[in-house]
Amino acid sequence: MIYIYRLANLLFRLRVPFLPWILKIINRVLFSVSLPPSVQVGRNVTFGYQGLGIVVHKNARLGSNVIISPNVVIGGKGKGQPGAPVIEDDVVIGAGACVLGAVRIGQGAVIGANSVVLANVAPHTTVAGIPAREVGQKSKLT
Questions:
Q1: Do residues 121 and 135 lie in contact, with contact meaning Cβ atoms separated by under 8 Å?
Q2: Residue 112 near residue 129, CB atoms below 8 Å
Q3: Could you tell me the residue range of the domain that residue 74 belongs to?
Q4: 71 closest CA partner among 46, 92, 51
Q5: Residue 141: pLDDT over 60
Q6: C-alpha torsion sign, points 116, 59, 86, 32
Q7: What is the DSSP string of 71-97?
Q8: Does the residue 122 lie in any domain?
Q9: Are 12 and 20 in contact (CB under 8 A)?
Q10: Which band of pLDDT confidence, cut at 50, 70 and 90, is reported for residue 137?
Q11: Which of 7, 9, 19, 87 is most buried as measured by Cβ atoms within 10 A of its Cβ?
Q12: CA 142, 43, 45 angle in degrees (round to 5)?
């Protein structure tokens, strides 16, 4: 799944027409993941269960060492509300969570399962709930 995305992203950056989007469709059919070639994905990003049910906004940015569990939506808020999420390094996103709009998830943050994130999350903070609220912080050394 990630190798198909990486190839699609390379072709997208080289401005090759059509082929990146065909690879996106192949990923969608084979792995049930919607990961457009325009998304910026860092190193060592883990998509739980090969990306099962994960949907990522075409303008989203994912940092390095991010763990995204199944059935996660990283998307916009809808028409008239521009912007896409920015996920910094070392973030963990629990199953079924939604990160919506022009929000920034700080380095080392943890998003609880089935949470709905509509606002920025500070680094090294754990959030949970609908809408997501801070439930804890962790030391930068942890």
A1: no
A2: yes
A3: 42-137
A4: 51
A5: no
A6: positive
A7: T-EEE---TT-----EE-TT-EE-TT-
A8: yes
A9: yes
A10: confident
A11: 87
A12: 70
